[in-house]
Amino acid sequence: MQRENQTQRLTFSASMTALGVILLLLGSMLPGMRVACAAVAGVVASLVVIRCGLLYALLSVVATAVLSFLLVPAKELALLYAVFFGPYALVKNLIERLHRLPLEWILKLVYCGTVAAMLFRLSEQVLAIVPEMLAAHFWLYLPAVLLIFAAYDIVFSKLIGYLFQRLHIR
Predict the structure, then answer these.
(1) What is the mean pLDDT of residues 143-164?
(2) Which end of the chain, N or C, is less packed with Cβ atoms under 10 Å?
């Protein structure tokens, strides 16, 4: 397959940016699906990593975050995407280049734990979408987040593998 030119990569990145913003808008309309919509928007960012590379993915994540802060009524979703789900698509790609599974998991959990702790301490908005019992106690919050994150990462990896096979990306 012929290599895509810059215009095609930019067009794909812009389309995925728009899809990410739409998913975050959808999450603001469906309160029970807020975190799920932010997570799927992060998966969309990974499509840009796969098809266009890290630079285009970085630009797409930044554009999605900025547009979300401007357009999405639920600012906690924009924040959750901007500090966790968007950048995680890039971080996951870089970590998995190590090809050392135990080290990869340690680095992913450190990333998740660091961001989760930061959000717990600094963001009342994000804590508003967490169950009250978890939001009140960091010792419950962090293990729950790490457990959910591990499941998310496994599903994320399976989905990316499926997309590689099914859509013949690259």
Answers:
(1) 89
(2) N
